Amino acid sequence: MNRWIEIFIVSLKLGLTSFGGPVAHLGYFYEEYVKRRKWVDEKAYADLVALCQFLPGPASSQVGMGIGLVRGGVIGAIISFIGFTLPSSILLVIFALLATEFNLAEAGFIHGLKLVAVAIVADAVLGMGTKLAVGPKRLFLMLLALAGVLLLAHPLAQVGVLILAALIGLFLFEDEPASGGKLDIRVPRLLSIGALVLFVVLLVATPILANVATGNVQLTSIMYSAGALVFGGGHVVLPFLQQSLVPDFLTGDSFLAGYAAAQAVPGPLFTFATYLGTVVNGLTGGILATLAIFLPGFLLVIGVLPFWDRVRSNKQVGRMLIGVNAAVVGILLAALYDPIFTSSVKTGADFFVAFGLFCLLRFYKQSPLRIVIIGALIGTIMNLI
């Protein structure tokens, strides 16, 4: 019970402070779960991040669920999801119910929080790079992943880069021991199989329901399909939801206003579904939409992770993971540049603030929560000057 309470408190804190989108969330998770609390080590964390990049759904939320699963079993995974998702869901419900024209994206504190995301992700890239991309072979794979993601502007580029890194690693690291960390996961085999079966059954059933049902059933079906079929996180789900919901359920202007609000609040971008569901059918619609879009990712975490921990003990898989882990650093570095750096750092003053926050985090050992508060205050002051 105490462990579950701890998981909820930590995930809730991350849900309140993790601004900047999916990749920034991975930086916050690294600071909190790996560096500060040591619930998993760097190698296990990189393995978890790599696996969730391969799975459809919200990758950062799935990483959080996976760490909750390691720490507190299936209930821990559920609690981790609730804590991380609750703050942004509540804020977006309020935004939808008020139905006013808030321009949160232009607020001064939001700009400051974007600069915080630069510092957080930079620290995570540096920390993971010194463990997972050391030596000429790993550095080569990191640079290969960096180039691939930057040059191939496609949502599936990350998956392709990871597959290529795994294949290269299989042959490049024949003389090296496997580098995968240990994820202590205790989930009954029957439960894991049941989760995978339920995922497939719902994946087949929901498109049918979306075409023949109405109201909340149709809305729930659309959201489940979005969570089950979209790779690449919250930004990539935008066209799928827009095509499915506009103009039958809401107007294009209302859709885009909610998406702007979703990017301005902390936590997972998939809580955009909370806003959409609330606009369509009030609080009930918001709750159903939220649960439906996250359910596929949760079922995959419960179904895949226990088997993944066994599979990666294989020597060949271990060599592939060395390559994948190095590539993960390159993917994070690419995201640090675009969209995090390019959308946040516009002036010399922005760069100075971002670098100062990075120094506070890396060298003065300030907590991410304190960095978030400082960044929000500096952004507000910069906006007033």
UniProtKB/TrEMBL annotation:
Subcellular location, record wording: Cell membrane
Segments passing through the bilayer: 74-97, 109-128, 140-173, 193-210, 222-241, 286-308, 320-337, 343-361
InterPro entries named in the record: Chr_Tranpt_l_chain (IPR014047), Chromate_transpt (IPR003370)
Cell membrane is among the record's keywords: yes
Organism: Exiguobacterium antarcticum
Domain of life where this protein originates: Bacteria
Main subcellular location: membrane
Swiss-Prot/TrEMBL keywords: Cell membrane, Membrane, Transmembrane, Transmembrane helix
Cell membrane keyword on record: yes
Leader sequence residues: none
Family (UniProt): Belongs to the chromate ion transporter (CHR) (TC 2.A.51) family.
Membrane topology, record value: Multi-pass membrane protein
Name used for this protein in its record: Chromate efflux transporter
